[in-house]
Amino acid sequence: MSTIACVFAHPDDEAFGPGGTLAKLARDHEIHIICCTDGDVHNNGLKNVRDKELLASAKILGVKQVHFLKFIDGALSNALYHKLADNLKTRLDKIEPEIIITFDPNGVSGHLDHIAVTSAVNFLFPKLNYVQKIMYFCLKDAERSQISDYFVYMPPGKPKEEVDEIVEISSVWDIKVSAMQAHVSQASDCDWILSIQSKLPKEEWFLVRSKR
């Protein structure tokens, strides 16, 4: 059974993003999630709540283990770049995954934490002999067209002809939804994301970078 590490900035990225793909891969892979921040961007005392929500979501998806790096939500930047990369490498060296799943280089939504995490993964990729492939979850252009002014800048989605791999998730859609809903503190985000995704084909799209 091969091993996959899913590297994300926040609790909920695993479910709101490629949750269906994780649920399918968990059937015949050992899945680990590395969550880089505590998810408490407004310092509302949600750190423990969000940890528990991520653990509940991971259990629903069939994930073997969740690893918490505990950086401050919203604080990932160039100043922390090498510290983030060093922390990630320490965890990845213990897991030795063949595949890493993360967000695309635009961070899907343009969130700077997302971009920092993907940049750190890209920095490490040539240094990790055991990792053969990165799968970058990306936003569909049809999905992006239904989202307005979420951030000051939100990147365009990808057209189908530009993606490298499409995972059909209709068979695990209910599992993905349950994992999303496990993030109770993020219910409003969950609801509007589902209001868009439920109308689109049950697919998750990826860019792929491989050493082979």
TrEMBL record:
Q: Please name the InterPro entries in this protein's record.
A: GlcNAc_PI_deacetylase-related, LmbE-like_dom_sf
A Pfam family (short name) is PIG-L
- Molecular function per GO: hydrolase activity, acting on carbon-nitrogen (but not peptide) bonds, in linear amides
The protein's matches in Gene3D superfamilies, at most eight in alphabetical order, are given as: LmbE-like
Q: What name does this protein carry?
A: GlcNAc-PI de-N-acetylase
Q: What species is given as this protein's source? A: Candidatus Amesbacteria bacterium RIFCSPLOWO2_01_FULL_48_25
